[in-house]
Amino acid sequence: MRYIRPLSIEDAVGQLAGSAGTAAILAGGSDLLVRMKRGFVEPDLIVDIKSIAGLSDIRETADGFSIGAAVPCAVLGENAALKKAWPGVVEAAKLIGSKQVQGRCTITGNLCNASPAADSVPALVAAGAKAVIAGPSGKRTIAVEAVPTGPGKTSLAKGEIIEAILLGKRSPRSGDAYLRFIPRTEMDIAVVSAGVNLTIDEHGVVTAARVALGAAAPTVLLVEEAAEALIGRKLDEAALERLAKVCAGACRPIDDKRGTIEFRRKVAGVLARRAATTAYARAGGK
Amino acid sequence: MAGIAVSTTINGDITEYLCQPDETLLDVLRDRLGLTGAKEGCGTGDCGACSIILDNRLVCSCLVLGAEAEGRRIETVEGMAHGDQLHTLQQKFLEHAALQCGICTPGFLIAAKDLLAKNPDPSEEEIRFGLAGNLCRCTGYDKIVRAVQDAAIVMKGA
């Protein structure tokens, strides 16, 4: 096993692309080190990306925010501008693990770990976040929902690294929210979850919406029909009822010790309703 | 076997060591440097017994590689007392009997130190939330919370 700490993204990409055997990218390590400890993975090469310039920064740009791949979730919670613009994304990121884990874990890692139950991912998908990927053939930017392809699997090719997550600039009267169900009060993995992001007009009519569900399918689901249930309407009882029904129907969950299929379907709808209500209030809707 | 040469600062002292690429900082602290305050409970970041402060952030040292510590600043429980003078938190843990078997105690002390550094006047809820990454199977937590509350009062007055 080799451990390297490249100073440039080009060097990191080159090392990953040129490596024989298993290579792992290390940012916070809260997934990687656990997988190593349990013997699930034994990388031949560990590429620590924390010394690469810019990867530990949150930048506010003309287009919104760029969150470096190595920024710990605790730092997201300390960024007032980000919290104000994307409270749903930040509250989702803050749900990952304990304070100790918060000091290390990253939203990029949460995305690349590709767990269907990842907390930050439904919020990022609802937010329309994008991933900036550096690779051997240059850079590309894709929607975050295109990164995970199944439990533990991503669409990233050999040598590719997500260097940042982009969140757009907020339109006026916009809000987002994320909710999950866990049987405890804190520090657990989502049994099912929902992220909602919406924009309303001056009359409180929803003009744009994105709804995402977590732990409801092999990957986080972007439910377009659920967004359609909201767009063009005020968030009245009928719209919420329709939203819940569509979300329950869109789920393709598994039965396991944490929840049954029936339970996950029902609760996905309930959480989507509640998250939509919070997002609507944050957008200034009454 | 040769290792990775690391130079870091631990409790204010510049410290150098060699470690293997897959060696955790917890193992380096305990097995190479003799700093056995941080404990391995789970080894997977769930119990907090190995908590340390790394560049002002509370982390589980079992989830950090020894090699990552290059150029960084580490605080462990060994740095809390000054000679025979216990840190207020340590004193209050004793007074409130906030420990039984003691395995979780160094992690709690470091986590509480980090908590009070960032929030000198926490509510009970904030203390419970702030220490939720540290597991204790003996005390039931109430005594720990009271010790931290008492320490906060003393430390504010200091």
Protein described:
The complex is a heterodimer of chains A (286) and B (158). Chain A is of the alpha+beta class and 286 residues long. Chain A folds into two domains: 2-49 and 57-168, Uridine Diphospho-n-acetylenolpyruvylglucosamine Reductase, domain 3 (2-Layer Sandwich); 174-282, Enolase-like, domain 1 (2-Layer Sandwich). Chain A contains eleven helices and 14 strands. Chain A has helices spanning 9-17, 32-37, 73-77, 80-85, 87-93, 99-102, 107-113, 120-126, 224-230, 237-250, 261-282, and strands at residues 2-4, 23-26, 45-48, 58-61, 64-68, 130-135, 138-143, 148-150, 153-154, 161-168, 174-181, 192-200, 206-214, 221-222. A five-stranded antiparallel beta sheet of chain A has the order 4-5-10-6-7. In chain A, a hairpin with a 2-residue loop joins strand 8 and strand 9 (153-154). In chain A, helix 10 crosses helix 11 (261-282). The longest helix of chain A is centred in the C-terminal third of the chain and has 22 residues, at 261-282. The N and C termini of chain A lie far apart (57 Å). In chain A, 52% of the residues are buried. The mean pLDDT of chain A is 97. Chain B has 158 residues and is an alpha+beta fold. Chain B folds into two domains: 4-76, Beta-grasp domain (Ubiquitin-like (UB roll)); 88-157, DNA polymerase, domain 1 (Orthogonal Bundle), CATH 1.10.150.120. A five-stranded mixed beta sheet of chain B has the order 2-1-5-3-4, sandwiched between helices. In chain B, a hairpin with a 2-residue loop joins strand 1 and strand 2 (13-19). Chain B is globular. The relative contact order of chain B is 0.16. The mean pLDDT of chain B is 97. The interface between A and B is medium-sized, with 27 and 29 residues.
